[in-house]
Structures are given as C-alpha cells and as structure tokens.
Amino acid sequence: MSYLVLFLVIVLFVTLPSLWVQRTMKKYSTPSDRYPYSGKEFSKKLLAALNLDKVDVESTEIGDHYDPQSKTVRLTADKMESNSLTAIVVAAHEVGHAHQHSTSYLPFRLRTVLVKTMGPAQRFGALILMAAPIVTLITRLPGPGIIMLIGGFLTMGMSTLVHFVTLPTEWNASFSRALPMLEKGGILKEGDDIYAREILTAAALTYVAGSLMSLINIARWWTILRRGPL
pTM score, two decimals? Predict the structure, then answer.
C-alpha cells in the first residue's frame, strides 16, 4: 500500500507543473490579436535587432524550441500565426536561446552536449530493456529486475537529468534575454508585464515539467525491483 501512495504522490508531483504550464500558455493565448505582429513576425523582428540574420523561423508540431544545429527558432502553429501575448512572449524566449547560442553561453553549450549524449544513452537503455526477458529465460537468475531498473533509468530518466541540470539555461533565456527584449522600447502593453513574467516562467519550466513525467516510469521500475525476482 505504501508503494501505491508513493506512486500517487509522484504522479501528483509531476502532473501539476505540466498542467500549470499548459493552463498559463492557454490563458494568455486570447485575444489572438492583442499585438500588431504574430509570433513569427516578432521572432524575426527580435532576431534582426540582435543581428542574427542567419537564424530562421519555422513552424513545428513538436513544441516550441530553438534548434542549434540548423540555427532555427521553431514555434507551434498557434504561436506562429497568433498575435497574442503568449505568442510574442514565447517567441522572445526561443529567440533568447538563439542569443545564448550566438554568445557561446556556457550552460547552453553544456545542454547541447548533454542532449547529444542523451540519444545514445536512451538507445542503450532500450536495448537493455529488450534484453532483460531473454536474460531471464537463459540464466533463470533474479538479476533482470536490476537490469530493467538500469534500462528504465537510461531510457526514461536521461531527459529528466538533462533538463534539471540545464534549468539555468531556460531561466536565463526567459529573464536575462527575453524579458529585457520585451521591456525595451515599451513593446508590452500596459499591465501585461506581470503576465509576461508568468508566461516566461512557464516557458522556462516547459521542458522540466514534461521531463518530470519520466519519474513515473522510474517509480515503476523501482516497484518492480522491490518485488524481488521476476
């Protein structure tokens, strides 16, 4: 029973931040015509002001992000074409990452390296998970529980580790890069500054909130291991 309670606590812990991020982004997505430019137009405006003319702006279906490999700011369709407060604030956040890249900001460089490492580690973890049942059949030993825990951590936990380690990168993009750009020249409408800060906080926590979901799977591997031999 105690493990069930622990599991429910973890589910609550990892779900609430994600729900808050989604609610915040949606809350300030209306009205969709609050500003004179869309997320796409505002991204280009900021990039031009920073002399980052080689950085492109594209639409994506996998979440707002900056791709350092192709030097591209990518926004979801609802922000690319919307003129809402959420659209321009998120655009500023992603341009903040492009600015980090251009200035060789150390935490950003560290995250880039960790993300590159995460892919092979996750593939290795998946291989371990697939091998665990075979090892069980061949050896008939109680080790597969440990093997599955290791595999589960590598496949599910790497993203959590990466985003926790690089949280300062997200915070810097929001409050040391995006916020000054938004405040400069009086871009924000009167009264929107407090809401912009809320959106920037959500933007900084987006990846962390998402990666926390992997803790549910880690808890599952731990429960399997605590049960003893498979």
Answer: 0.79
